């Protein structure tokens, strides 16, 4: 299984079965160069750094276009209208912040890991890194945190104090996970997305961080609705267990109290498990492609900051790539 909690890596960040607040705060220095969505030069005195297509009296000229019925008459450019003898509007691009909403899965299905850390830890680290990246570009950051029985709604707030409170709630939820806890709550994924849909009505960056246990047709419908008025990004937490196992490999598994050894010497068993893993991967990528949502596969085997940097690219690129 994963290393014991509190084991230090070369970067000085602890990994294992649980996270703590110090660990998530330490990730801040790795987040400033993460390209979370688009980034544009400042065009106005408004908060935030994202160019939007708001129509109004902004400081950055965008275009002239003919007046259409129902347009705001206050935007008519009277000089151009007089010269061309038909009404024209002068339109501007204003700038405003784009709230980031992190939807973070801390269910028992995430409480598993075979190498560097548990999937629940990876999810918390992804949330911290992308949250710090949002704060670095002056966005508000909020979250829907959910486990097998509860969910917590934290509305997007601005500044370190608000985000530290969010991280504290995430740590509390993460540290409550235990092998003896009841699990198997596939319905919580859709419940959390329903909350996100209510909270992120327009122009949010919604980041779903999960292994997608419980994904079904209703999940697709909820994400389709979210994507209609928001930018949606999916981070798939995964563990490389069974990848590259040789016939001589034995696997020791434990629930924290008892342990057992699994013999993978049978070729048929290894092949069947490999096919099952490959089928699951193809299903998730096809699901994301069908929705038009970028999918970032994040493994428990490597430092999360390095993975996100490779998947998202540098800030200057402002793009998301599939890994």
From TrEMBL:
Q: Transmembrane ranges?
A: none
Taxonomically, which superkingdom? Bacteria
The chain's coiled-coil residues are none
Checking InterPro entries in the record gives:
DUF58, vWFA_dom_sf
DUF58 domain segment(s): 63-276
Q: Which protein are we looking at?
A: DUF58 domain-containing protein
């Amino acid at each position: 299984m994963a290393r014991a909690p509190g084991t230090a890596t070369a970067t000085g960040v602890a990994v294992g079965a649980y996270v703590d607040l110090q660990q998530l705060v330490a990730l801040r220095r790795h987040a400033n160069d993460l390209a979370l969505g688009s980034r544009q030069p400042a065009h106005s005195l408004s908060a935030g750094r994202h160019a939007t297509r708001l129509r109004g009296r902004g400081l950055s000229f965008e275009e002239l276009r003919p007046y259409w019925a129902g347009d705001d008459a206050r935007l008519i450019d009277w000089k151009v209208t007089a010269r061309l003898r038909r009404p024209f509007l002068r339109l501007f691009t204003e700038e405003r912040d784009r709230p980031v909403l992190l939807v973070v899965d801390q269910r028992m299905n995430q409480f598993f890991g075979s190498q560097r850390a548990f999937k629940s830890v990876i999810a918390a680290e992804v949330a911290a890194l992308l949250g710090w990246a949002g704060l670095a570009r002056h966005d508000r950051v909020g979250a829907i945190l959910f486990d097998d029985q509860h969910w917590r709604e934290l509305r997007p707030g601005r500044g370190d104090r608000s985000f530290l409170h969010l991280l504290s709630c995430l740590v509390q939820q993460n540290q409550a996970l235990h092998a003896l806890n009841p699990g198997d709550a596939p319905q919580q994924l859709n419940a959390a997305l329903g909350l996100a849909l209510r909270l992120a009505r327009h122009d949010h960056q919604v980041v779903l961080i999960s292994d997608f246990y419980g994904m079904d047709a209703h999940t697709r419908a909820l994400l389709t609705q979210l994507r209609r008025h928001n930018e949606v990004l999916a981070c798939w937490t995964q563990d490389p267990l069974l990848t590259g196992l040789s016939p001589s490999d034995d696997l020791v598994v434990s629930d924290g109290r008892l342990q057992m050894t699994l013999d993978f010497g049978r070729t048929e068993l290894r092949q069947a498990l490999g096919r099952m893993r490959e089928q699951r991967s193809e299903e998730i990528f096809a699901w994301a492609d069908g929705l038009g949502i970028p999918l970032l596969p994040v493994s428990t085997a490597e430092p999360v900051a390095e993975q996100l940097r490779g998947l998202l690219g540098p800030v200057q690129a402002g793009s998301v790539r599939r890994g």
